[in-house]
């Protein structure tokens, strides 16, 4: 998906490096991944700045190098592309685009709803009904969606869960995996019958998608 988005950016800006502004947290990971495929690009992180009474009153750009954070500034003359993982309603993207409007930013994401406003300039997937997406760096953070994706086809034992996750490149460890599955069961997000885990009410609708 990242490769697809990078290809679109290259076609839109042939021969040019760009500034990738990743919306914290996941958008920054996606921006870093894009930078690997767009040599010469600058990567900044963007976070909403808190004002009085918990309100957001602006955007802070952050650069990171050698483990040090500092204030970031886009390079003059480079196209600026705001990056997020998923654009659903578009509310979050709109906030950052509005606050960075003087840079004439474009928007990139891995997946987007076709009703998002604003819609992305660059996206790997655009669909009318976004599924529950499990991104590689959010396997445990989004443990309920991870479980739903893997159980959509039918029940699994913990060992089979572990095997499926290893096939996808995730070595979590059976003890930690068992702990997270038990927590999901306690919240009734899945159920255990003997040594097999399943979704409540059956195997699922098939609506989830595993990235």
Could you please describe the fold and organization of this structure?
By secondary structure, the protein is an alpha/beta fold. 30% of the residues lie in helices and 29% in strands. It contains six helices and twelve strands. Strands 4-3-2-1-5-6-7 form a seven-stranded mixed β-sheet, sandwiched between helices. It has a three-stranded antiparallel β-sheet with strand order 9-11-10. Strand 10 (191-193) and strand 11 (196-198) form a beta hairpin. Mean pLDDT is 85; it is low at 203-211.
Architecture blueprint of SSEs:
Elements: H1 2-12, E1 19-23, H2 26-37, E2 42-50, E3 56-65, E4 68-71, E5 80-87, H3 91-99, E6 106-113, E7 122-127, E8 133-134, H4 143-151, E9 156-157, H5 158-167, H6 174-186, E10 191-193, E11 196-198, E12 209-210
Parallel strand pairs: 1-2, 1-5, 5-6, 6-7, 8-12
Antiparallel strand pairs: 2-3, 3-4, 9-11, 10-11
Produce a short descriptive summary.
The protein has six helices and twelve strands. The chain is an alpha/beta fold and 211 residues long.
What characteristics describe this protein?
7-stranded mixed β-sheet, 3-stranded antiparallel β-sheet, alpha/beta
N/C terminus separation: 9 Å
Largest sheet: 7 strands, mixed
Strand content of the residues, in percent?
Answer: 25-35%
Instruction: Give the strand order, joined by hyphens, for the main sheet.
Output: 4-3-2-1-5-6-7
Q: How many DSSP helices?
A: 6
Helix vs. strand class? alpha/beta
Low-confidence stretches: 203-211
> Could you tell me the number of beta strands?
12
Radius of gyration from the alpha-carbon trace, in angstroms? 19 Å
Order of helices and strands: HEHEEEEHEEEHEHHEEE
Helix share bin: 25-40%
Overall shape: elongated
Average pLDDT reading: 85
């Amino acid at each position: 998906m990242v490769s697809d988005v990078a290809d679109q950016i290259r076609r839109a800006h042939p021969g040019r490096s760009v500034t990738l502004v990743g919306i914290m947290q996941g958008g920054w990971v996606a921006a870093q991944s894009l930078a690997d495929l767009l040599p010469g690009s600058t990567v900044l992180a963007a976070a909403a700045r808190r004002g009085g009474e918990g309100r957001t009153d602006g955007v802070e750009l952050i650069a990171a190098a050698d483990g040090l954070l500092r204030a970031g500034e886009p390079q003059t003359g480079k196209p600026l592309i705001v990056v997020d993982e998923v654009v659903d309603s578009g509310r979050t993207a709109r906030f950052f685009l509005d606050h960075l409007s003087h840079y004439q930013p474009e928007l990139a994401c891995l997946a987007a709803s076709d009703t998002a406003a604003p819609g992305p300039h660059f996206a790997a997937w655009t669909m009318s009904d976004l599924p529950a997406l499990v991104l590689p760096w959010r396997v445990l953070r989004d443990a309920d969606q991870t479980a739903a994706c893997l159980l959509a086809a039918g029940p699994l034992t913990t060992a089979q869960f572990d095997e499926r996750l290893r096939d996808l490149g995730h070595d979590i460890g059976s003890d930690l995996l068992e702990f997270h599955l038990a927590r999901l069961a306690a919240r009734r997000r899945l159920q255990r019958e003997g040594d097999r885990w399943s979704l409540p009410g059956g195997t699922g609708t098939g609506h989830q998608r595993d990235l």
